[in-house]
Amino acid sequence: MLITAAVVKEQGGAFCIENCELDSPKANEVLVEVEAAGICHTDIAARDQYMPVPLPAVLGHEGVGRILQLGEGVNEFAIGDRVLMSFGSCGQCKNCRNAAPGYCDQGLVYQVLGSRSDGSSPISQQGKAITGHFFAQSSFASHAIAATQNMVPLADDLDPSLMAPLACGVQTGMGSVLLSMAAESGSSICILGCGTVGLSAIAAAKIAGCNPIIAVDIMDSRLEMARELGASHCTRGDQESLQKALQKLGGIDYALDTTGAPAVADAAFQALKPRGCLVCVGVGKPGAKLNIDMGLLMATGKQIRGAIEGDAVPRDFIPRMIEYYRAGQLPLDKLVTRYAFEDINQAVADTLSGKVIKPVLSMSN
């Protein structure tokens, strides 16, 4: 079928709204008419080739829409269902079977190569296949072929634009605190970077009962939002000694780095209490490395680890986040700014400038 999609053709290039051809769904896939899609820094990292996604490509990995057609073997969903599309995983490897789909053996294929496990793509232009199964969806389009493995049904009363960020950004932030760290009530936590992921983590830290909750950013407006969502202390990340500023607060039990900036993550690591834990979820520039003193690591029992999607199983954790939203504990409306699909390049620019926190594309006005 003929669809409209935002195609990136070259490193750092514009998203070009163009016609593409979309195949029918294969086994365990569905055809979705996309209603909304969040823009994530991972999409921008792919555009800029910090992630080597083959170009040209249709990106987008926080899609919400309604199912129009079912592929073979799909019996848990029906035509007309509204669904949220999360990241790709095979569902069969050891990590998938052990409730860790973020570390799927096929994750590189879905999330970086942007293809099905067999290397094929459902999207083509002028008869030539292009990358079109990014995160098993490629939802910067009017329609998407999406795998059902990490797809979650949504009630009709939920706003698609507010739900879309749960697929990745909000899931990563909340999951990192509630699942990866399993942060305990009364523990101190520092959130480095107050974008969608960081602010979601602050909301999660408040739910977990962390105290103090320390927010770090270089934008005063972001720090103000952090306070609204539950941060008890705010500090600028561009000051001369972030490490000393954090240590003055008594040291920290947990730290979450969303920036991907080694100097920032290192400052938090140094400020950890003995046996404290630093979780890194930011996409760093190619070659970005942490320089950790091995003796200090041994002597203090500190931990440092990465996390993908906050270690979440989407079908379990996304309904949990929806309940937090319904209970008023996750104010998604404070994070989201809506854009028309054709304004995608402005939405990206506003994200990079810090003008907005979470842009979400509406596929129809």
From TrEMBL:
The keyword Metal-binding applies. InterPro entries: ADH-like_C, ADH-like_N, ADH_Zn_CS, ER, GroES-like_sf, NAD(P)-bd_dom_sf. Its cofactor is Zn(2+). Signal peptide: none annotated. The keyword tRNA processing does not apply. SMART domains: PKS_ER (SM00829). Keywords: Metal-binding, Oxidoreductase, Zinc. Residues 12-361 form the Enoyl reductase (ER) domain. Pfam families: ADH_N, ADH_zinc_N. Belongs to the zinc-containing alcohol dehydrogenase family. This is NAD(P)-dependent alcohol dehydrogenase.
